[in-house]
Automatic annotation (TrEMBL):
The NADP-dependent oxidoreductase domain, residue ranges: 34-212
Signal peptide: none
Annotated Gene3D superfamilies: NADP-dependent oxidoreductase domain
Cross-referenced Pfam families: Aldo_ket_red (PF00248)
PANTHER family documented for this protein: GH17980P-RELATED
Protein's recorded name: Aldo/keto reductase
Length: 362
């Protein structure tokens, strides 16, 4: 698992190669503020090999935060990362490995009949209660999350997953009322607290798409204060002193800045943004869609582009995302060594300061 000594040693090996605050605090030590994602791509051997090369190159050149999910590319993304972790010369203790559970994964390829596959692989063996499924593909049921966590540990070939996310928990709000969903989260948190105590995960979090960046009136809205309260209750029930809820993941980029601009989270001083509330609560924030799944690599709105540092549009888009107050790491999908080189180089430029970032929205 990642350790304080391992991640700090990784940081030190690069000396002054990167700009200020390139490495940032993340339990239990530090991680790069640019991370490698593994969502995009078909579930094929060719894409597997491209990811292997990209991830290995990233680890060797200053990216030590690797993000995936069990359902990405039919479990292939986790398995590719496992292959790289086994063969890389970078110490496992230097690498932050994050994955997610919540969506029912296929195995290796998309089956001809997904409904039949889910019935045979998940419902009939009792892995998931069909009553807990939303849209036939998502569950937060503790038994299901437990099974998926075991499978992720196997796919990744690790003893400990450094950060385990519940994946898009707001999906459950499409079928259930908020109170029921918070109850589901608390039950899942209890499971994760037990797995944390057993050493199977380091910390846990919520990886979301809508939940924290939409107005309170939105069907898929979740309250960060309420989520934290449920984590505290889960820890108390399990009998641990401090809860392990340590991170949230949400989309953030030049064109999707709601996590900064929408004041959706209640606080004692009035509504604040998700980024502000997370920062004040001590939660790490990891951004997804940091270059709009590639769209921002071509062009950034001129007024914003002029404020950013970087030789390419992709670099400037990355630097916008990681300049947002409270952001720990901005994830970028990288499926080639050339993309890795360009994206890592974004970290040689300093991010915007807080006041400069604010002026973008004036």
């Amino acid at each position: 698992m990642a350790t304080a000594d391992g991640t700090w040693a990784y940081r030190d090996r690069f000396g002054d190669s990167f700009g200020r605050t390139y490495f940032r605090r993340f339990p239990p030590g530090v991680c790069s503020s640019i991370g490698i994602g593994s969502y995009l791509g078909e579930p094929t051997d060719r894409v597997d090999e491209a990811y292997r090369e990209a991830i290995e190159t990233a680890l060797e050149n200053g990216i030590n935060h690797v993000d995936t999910a069990i359902n990405y590319r039919c479990q292939r993304s986790e398995r590719v990362i496992g292959d790289v972790l086994e063969r890389t010369e970078i110490d496992r203790e230097a690498i932050v490995v994050a994955t997610k559970g919540g969506f029912l994964p296929f195995d290796g390829e998309r089956p001809a009949d997904p409904g039949e596959y889910i019935r045979e692989q998940f419902v009939e063996p009792g892995v998931v209660d069909p009553g807990s499924l939303v849209r036939g593909s998502h569950s937060l049921e503790p038994n299901f999350i437990n099974e998926m966590l075991d499978q992720s540990l196997s796919n990744l070939g690790v003893e400990t997953i450094d950060c385990y996310y519940l994946h898009n928990p707001e999906t459950q709000l499409l079928d259930a009322d908020p109170g029921s969903v918070y109850d589901q989260l608390e039950a899942a948190f209890e499971l994760l607290e037990r797995r944390r105590a057993a050493g199977d995960i380091g910390v846990y979090g919520l990886a979301t798409w809508q939940a924290f960046r939409v107005p309170q009136s939105h069907q898929q809205y979740l309250s960060l204060p309420a989520v934290i309260e449920r984590a505290e209750a889960a820890a108390e029930h399990v009998g641990v002193d401090d809860h392990g809820l340590a991170a949230i993941q949400l989309p953030f980029n030049v064109k999707m800045a709601d996590a900064f601009t929408v004041k959706s989270q209640p606080s004692d001083e009035g509504p604040v943004s998700a980024l502000e509330y997370a920062h004040e609560s001590g939660l790490s924030v990891v951004t997804s869609a940091s270059i709009g799944q590639g769209d921002l690599a071509a062009a950034i709105p001129p007024a914003v582009d002029a404020e950013l540092s970087g030789d390419t549009a992709a670099q400037r888009a990355i630097n916008f995302a990681r300049s947002a107050p409270g952001v720990t790491t901005s994830l970028v999908g990288m499926r080639s060594a050339d993309h890795v080189a360009e994206n890592v180089a974004a970290g040689t430029f300093d991010p915007l300061g807080a006041s400069a970032f604010d002026t973008v929205f004036e």
